[in-house]
Amino acid sequence: MSSVVSTRTAPQVYAKLSLDAPKRRYDEEPADLNIPDNYVQWVLKNQKELPPITWQTLWGELNYLSLSILTITPAIAIWGIFNVKLRWETAIWSIIYYFITGLGITAGYHRLWSHRSYNASKPLEYALAMAGTGAVQGSIKWWCRGHRAHHRYTDTPLDPYDANKGFWWSHVGWMLVKPRRKPGVADVSDLSKSAVVRWQHRWYVWLILGMGFVFPTVVAGFGWGDWAGGFFYAATARLVFVHHSTFCVNSLAHWLGEAPFDDKHTPRDHMITAFVTNGEGYHNFHHQFPVDYRNAIKWYQYDPTKWFIWVCSKLGLATHLKTFPDNEVKKGQLAMQLKRLRETQESLKFALDPNDLPVISWEGFREQAKIRALVVIGGFIHDVSSLIDEHPGGRHLILKNIGKDATTAFFGGVYDHSNAAHNWLSMMRVGVLSGGVQHGLDDKNIPPSQRLWVARYNELSSSGSTSSTACSDVDEEGLLG
User: Fold this and answer.
1) CA-CA distances (angstroms) from residue 98 to 68, 141, 468?
2) CB burial class (10 A; 0-12, 13-18, 19+) of residue 81?
3) What is the CA radius of gyration of the chain?
4) What is the value of pTM for the model shown?
5) Do 286 and 417 belong to one domain?
6) I want to staple 279 with a disulfide (CB 3.0 to 4.6 A). Which of 111, 303, 320, 340 is the partner?
7) Is the distance from CB of 374 to CB of 368 less than 8 angstroms?
8) Nearest-CA neighbor of 438 among 374, 364, 377?
9) Do 328 and 392 sit in the same domain of this protein?
10) How far apart are CA 42 and CA 63, in angstroms?
């Protein structure tokens, strides 16, 4: 153990309290102010993680507080389910309170305080702080510190919920054992200035008891006399569902679905995850545009948190709802669409480049057409042997043009052939007629499947690329002015 650098050490960044100005005593120096530019590599090189957990060391490595909350709570709920009758009023109240405390996390902890995607009035802040406390997932400051680290260091060893360590690790495992490495530094100095955040942090334990257990029990007890049901269903069982709903944002949202905006990292979009997590299921979008108050950008996608924030804005409780420019969102989608098209494009076979085909004279073509089913169309010589019995118009239309130029007939003289016909015909090219392509047929002779082409930037011609000499004629004042 002596050779292992403590996971609690990091680049020394100190919180600075101003003693000379009491009104600024909550100002902190940002935690990431003095970190090196190559911070991730620096940490991985200079701070060794703690040894792997083994069966022999497991008991000493467990996080007993989290373990207790995540095991005792569901045990109590299960006992209640088998021993306390569920009344319909309590069932409805449990669902309502599930959404209330869930919104405390999604609209409060997540979108308001972690990402500052909108501004909330003081009444709304206090309401979200209390609702989030009812979800029993740590204080706002603690939760946001971990979540900001997750976004900054996604899929690296400094990500506290690193999805690369497996589904169950990112779901609950990271909470059940002591971390092998301290999460990457993330600044939460802005939250220290919030009176609501400080208030919740100070009274957190009492708020947990009040909002997590007492309040839902009291509502059911005084409301319709179901004290036991209020405790076992609205408080305890509801809490289990809220826990795992939130945990799915770290696990399911990095495992199930597609990456329509960027596949560099693990976040994924899926409707099922959205239903499970109060609308946090469009996670690929969220990781690309985290300051956006929306998680789902299409009207039909399930995102009750977005709708809640929007309604609050109409009531004057929320302002400055942030949305990422639609133009930039579409760029992300386009990049992924082009990538998928490129993958499809590379899996297909296309016509040979004309420069790779032999040049054949008219006499040579006529001579070879006596032993092969050759036809000239648009200056290209095609071997149509395989087409004779497959031609929709009949064999006779092919046979009568063997050894001849059928350009006029193919390009609308007899039939204006479809894109599929053009693409298929291009695969039958075996040569180029000496003299080149007829005037006016340059575009038509490019198969439709190749008229639009997905090309990498380094495959483009120099005339269309950006180079360091592109501005060489611009004077210095123009470049700097």
Assistant:
1) 21, 22, 57
2) middle
3) 33
4) 0.82
5) no
6) 303
7) yes
8) 377
9) no
10) 27
Do residues 13 and 31 touch, judged by C-beta distance below 8 A? yes
- Distances in whole angstroms, Cα of residue 245 to Cα of each of 71, 221, 275, 277, 430: 16, 26, 9, 5, 61
158 close to 43: Cβ distance less than 8 angstroms: yes
Q: What is the DSSP string of 168-190?
A: HIIIIIHHHB--SSPPPP---TT
Residue 100 tokens read as: 């209330």
Give the whole-angstrom CA distance, residue 66 versus residue 23: 36
- At residue 461, the pLDDT reads 62
Q: Residue 372 sits in which domain range?
A: 358-456
Whole-angstrom distance, CA of residue 352 vs CA of residue 432: 11
On whether both 176 and 273 belong to a single domain, the answer is: yes
CA 127/CA 129 separation, integer angstroms = 5
Instruction: Please give the pLDDT value at position 167.
Output: 96
What pLDDT is attached to residue 72? 96
Domain-embedded: residue 480: no
The pair of structure tokens assigned to 439 is 């005037």
Q: What would the DSSP string read from start to end of 113-153?
A: IIT--SEE-HHHHHHHHHHHHTT-S--HHHHHHHHHHHHHT
Classify residue 305: in a domain, yes or no.
yes
> Is 273 within a domain?
yes
Averaged over successive runs of 10 residues, the pLDDT of the chain (481 residues) comes to 36 35 59 88 90 89 92 96 96 98 97 97 97 96 96 95 95 92 92 95 95 97 96 97 96 96 95 96 96 95 97 97 96 94 93 91 93 93 92 89 91 84 92 75 78 84 47 43 37
Are 192 and 137 members of one domain? yes
Determine contact, residues 321/327, Cβ cutoff 8 Å: no
Examine the domain organization and report whether 170 and 300 are in the same domain: yes
Largest CA distance in the chain: 102
Instruction: Report how far apart, in Å, the C-alpha atoms of 89 and of each of 4, 92, 102, 229 are.
Output: 56, 5, 20, 10
Total tally of structural domains belonging to the chain: 2
Hey, what amino acid is at 107? Answer: A
- Identify the pLDDT of residue 33: 85
Question: What tokens does 79 get?
Answer: 């006992």
Structure tokens at 67: 């373990």
Residue 436 has a pLDDT of: 62
Last residue of one domain, picked from the residues 283, 303, 335: 335
